[in-house]
Amino acid sequence: MPKFLSNRDVSFFKGIAREIVDTVIQNTCVLFKINMNETKINLYGEAMNKTWFPGVELYTLISKDARTTNYEGFGSDTSQNIEFRFDRYMLEEKESYPEIGDIIYFDNSYYEIDNINESQFIGGNPFLTDDLETEFSRNMSVICSTFMVRKSDLNIEERIK
Prior knowledge:
Layout: H1 7-25, E1 28-32, E2 56-59, E3 61-64, E4 68-72, E5 75-79, E6 81-87, H2 88-94, E7 103-106, E8 109-117, H3 130-135, E9 141-149
Antiparallel strand pairs: 1-2, 1-7, 3-6, 4-5, 6-9, 7-8, 8-9
């Protein structure tokens, strides 16, 4: 258990993190969640034409790889991996939680979440006292690993016919 961590310390961490991400860095993205009620699933549990809930704008820290372009018989294909880091408290306020398979719109491209990591613990320890457990969650951030997907594979934007 953390020996020198109080509610006041955690409130300070929360305030500093929010100020840096929301007012200094100001990276925003849009999270699209799958609408399972409207999405048709085939015999194998796959959905060819997914439908999405309206996007939610979120502040984020990003760590991105360089874009790469592959040239194969039919023209060029661009790919990129990005790691999006979200503040857990902001996600709770927006009532939106990223999950594997959700889509993130950033920098005029779409990225599908393929992994989520929640191991940035407050005070570096996953075990909190009962006092801290009730007021604050055990970790501060949600880290989403993503890969670029084609707009034509999604049903988010209306396409010109």
